[in-house]
Design goal:
The complex is a heterodimer. By secondary structure, chain A is mainly alpha-helical. Chain A folds into 2 domains: 76 residues, no CATH class; 176 residues, MetI-like fold. Chain A is built from 12 helices and no strands. In chain A, helix 2 packs across helix 3 and helix 10 runs antiparallel to helix 12. The longest helix of chain A has 39 residues. Chain A is flat. Chain B is mainly alpha-helical. The longest helix of chain B has 38 residues. Chains A and B meet through helix 1, helix 6, helix 7, helix 10 and helix 11 of A and helix 3, helix 4, helix 8 and helix 10 of B.
Amino acid sequence: MTRSLLGLFLRAFVVLTGTALATFTLLWNAPGDPALAIAMARFDAVVPADVIDLVRAEAGLDAGFWAAFRGWVVPLISGNFGNSSVTGRPVWPDLASATSYTVPLALAGLAIGLAISIPLAVLATRHPGSWLDRFAVGIASLGAAIPAYWLGLLLILLFAVKLAWLPAMGATTPSHVILPALTLGLGVAAALTRIIRSGILEARGQPFMPALKRRGISEHALAREHVGPHAAIPVITVFGLELAFLLEGAVMVEVIFGRPGLGSFLVGAIEARDFPKVQGVVILAALLFVGINLVIDVIYRLIDPRMGTQNA
Amino acid sequence: MRSVGFLVSALVALAVLGPMLAPHDPTAINIAARLSPPSGEWWLGTDAFGRDILSRLLHGARWSLGLAFVISLIGLIIGTVAGLTAALGGKAVDWAVMRVTDSFLAFPELVAAVVIAGILGGGINSLILALSLTSWMRYARVARGVGLSLRTRGYVVQAKLAGLSPLAIARWHYLPSLLPSLIVVWTGMFARAILGISALGFLGFGVQPPMAEWGTMLLDARIHMRAAPLLMIWPGLAVVACVLAINLVGDVLRDALAEKDSPQ
């Protein structure tokens, strides 16, 4: 167990280092002179060449790739995300505020997704092949094909423009989270319904199920004690993938609904070519993602004793 | 299988013939006819510049389907090469290749694509680069998995003893058994590429205006949501219809593959 946990941490470390290096390489080789971009953003006018050189030296851009990379990563380890190249202000406070909008949105989306998919999958598998089952699978396939940004626009059209029930743009009141969360949640529900459904069906097909039934164990106890945990394993695996979906979805959904979260932060930083901000949001996303997947891997090993023994 | 053939030919026809069937020039601006409702002249209406929506949709099909084809093919090639290298290259190579694959998988693909396409600047080339760099990992996993399972098969061992090079073994003994699984992964990635292209277009990091692409059309339509809500419906429907069709093809192929494999 300790050995496989150590392996997991090593893997997380390799992934984070790789992400940092890849991001930095991309930005370092981005088209255009970053020093010129910084100078233009700061002085908002035609900038003389010696000022550009000054900016270059100040931003550490003249020191070469590895020196610049160290100049970013070493402070990062102690939690210093550097300063915005446009405003000169520290990146972290803005990044933290953006995160405080994205995390509730993602959690609400996940909650809606689970609240729809679990009952739907349980109902569908009661009679496999029935019209209800086919309806659930059909809805899930349709849901998987609908892009989050279009669904979001349709919801705005219906609930904000036509019915005027809910606010669409911004994040000033709690009710502003409803439409974005619904957009995310419906997408999550579409993906999870299929997985939970096949998880339950697979659990029912296990050879120990008829044996338990013949021993007189009630349907109810069977579902709770045996089908549930068995079906939970693939669901937990997919949870990590769903997380990617939530993050991706949050990016699109926040842009559509004008929510000042990580998605809007990222798109705004790219458009302003504010590279320290782009690096910050990428690293934070990688950290969140790797961290949560690490937790999932550990939970996985706790639930399923078969895992982690053979090939970790 | 017949329905699969029909769907595939319909999609190919849409991508190839679509632009030829367009009744109008997709970029011709006609301010007098701006935001026209559907009519005999403009079957699906016009946008804020008076451009014909149907013609723009049909031209957009070439971007969405054509680019998705190219992107998923590049991903297929990178992924298969990486996966087979891992399977055939020995323990150290396998470890290294799979850690790189994990690193790429560990990051939300669309977010990575947004960063790459956004930093490199909008345009077709950075779009292709951004989406293919973030879509090869699943092929690599499948190729490696099948490759490892074949390593101890009699004919592979025989080929190795006969002195065939790893490249030849990969080409003649691994690739044919690998192809069906890769094609199933490919259909999924094709659908994802369509979603990715329109997502990047919608964010303004993809195909650039005035060229007609479904994502950029949605971006334009969003501003006129109140005046012309139908503008927003058409491009979204086009994306959903294509993705749904491709996913159906993938499901049928996967079931056919599972059936073929099960009796053995």
